[in-house]
């Protein structure tokens, strides 16, 4: 079966593109790391690729806030191409800084809630400091994203590395709207992902490393094609990457589902 070409977007300060490329390749895709400059110049086009990964890092040094400058470029130069790809059902995955850029660019979409606004942002961690630690995620049992469907309920053990990863909402009722619209794709769990008794973190640190409302670790858009999450599943795609403990709960199935959707 032909490996679908996957665009991995690079901007100055992006530092997780190589890891994302390895994960995509192990999942059966053909990763192509392409700079924002080349996309702006027309050297490459979104239409050349079956899917898009926005990797982690500190695009443009987070000078205007985490992911904000990249989000502005995406809206200014790429929005129509990206929106068309989403309309065609091509998967988009934003990881950490990529999630921040997706949310702040508007590509994660609007809501049927008050005035149509999603009412969600990513802001400073509740403890006021950078967090770099391993966490356990659950792909939610019910969510809108079609390409994640085969992973419903699956646990992923992987690191976080961010200072602005807290999901915050404009009003407490927004969490209920997100749940009703099946927009919550990932939640933080307590435990190590190996025991059947793992449960939602309940807002407790360090299982919820940043204080995200509702233990939300990732979201999807209304079409289900666009998915973003703060943790780094690309950092646990092979067993030797984990710091210890029994094997399993790798992030590779996430990338396999993504690549399959890009075919």
Keywords:
single chain; 263 residues; alpha/beta; 9-stranded mixed β-sheet; 11 strands
Count the DSSP helices: 6
Q: Major sheet, described briefly?
A: 9 strands, mixed
Classify the oligomer.
single chain
Main β-sheet, spatial strand arrangement = 2-1-3-4-11-10-9-6-7
Q: Specify the structural class.
A: alpha/beta
Write down how many β-strands occur, each being a DSSP E stretch of 2 or more residues: 11
Q: Give the averaged pLDDT, no decimals.
A: 93
Give start-end ranges of low-pLDDT stretches.
none
Give the SSE string. EHEHEHEHEEEEHEEEH
Distance N terminus to C terminus?
9 Å
Q: Taking Cα atoms only, what radius of gyration do you get, to the nearest Å?
A: 17 Å
Shape: globular
Roughly what fraction of the amino acids lie in strands?
15-25%
Descriptive account of the structure:
The chain is of the alpha/beta class. 24% of the residues lie in helices and 23% in strands. The chain has helices spanning 17-26, 36-41, 68-87, 97-105, 173-180, 252-262; strands at residues 5-10, 30-35, 51-54, 92-95, 120-123, 131-139, 155-162, 166-169, 184-189, 216-220, 226-229. The strands form two sheets. The protein has a nine-stranded mixed beta sheet with strand order 2-1-3-4-11-10-9-6-7, with helices on both faces. The chain starts with a strand and ends with a helix. The model has no long low-confidence stretch (mean pLDDT 93).
């Amino acid at each position: 079966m032909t490996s679908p070409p996957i665009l991995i977007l690079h901007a100055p300060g992006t530092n997780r593109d190589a890891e994302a490329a390895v994960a995509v390749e192990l999942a059966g895709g053909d990763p192509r790391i392409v700079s924002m400059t080349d996309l702006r110049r027309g050297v490459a086009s979104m239409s050349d690729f079956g899917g898009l990964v926005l990797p982690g890092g500190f695009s443009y040094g987070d000078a205007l806030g985490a992911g904000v400058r990249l989000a502005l470029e995406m809206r200014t130069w790429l929005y129509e191409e990206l929106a068309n790809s989403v309309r065609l059902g091509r998967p988009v995955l934003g990881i950490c800084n990529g999630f921040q850029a997706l949310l702040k660019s508007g590509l994660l979409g609007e809501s049927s809630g008050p005035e149509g606004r999603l009412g969600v942002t990513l802001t400073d961690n509740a403890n006021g400091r950078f967090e770099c630690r391993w966490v356990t995620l659950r792909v939610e049992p019910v969510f809108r994203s079609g390409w994640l469907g085969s992973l419903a309920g699956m646990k992923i053990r992987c690191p976080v590395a961010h200072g602005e990863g807290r999901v915050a909402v404009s009003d407490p009722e927004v969490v209920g709207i997100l749940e009703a619209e099946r927009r919550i794709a990932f939640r933080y769990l307590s435990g190590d992902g190996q025991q059947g008794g793992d449960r939602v973190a309940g807002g407790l640190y360090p299982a919820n490393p940043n204080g995200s409302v509702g233990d939300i670790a990732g979201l999807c858009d209304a079409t289900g094609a666009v998915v973003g999450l703060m943790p780094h599943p690309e950092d646990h795609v092979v067993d030797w990457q984990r710091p210890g403990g029994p094997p399993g709960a790798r992030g590779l199935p996430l990338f396999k589902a993504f690549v399959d959707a890009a075919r």
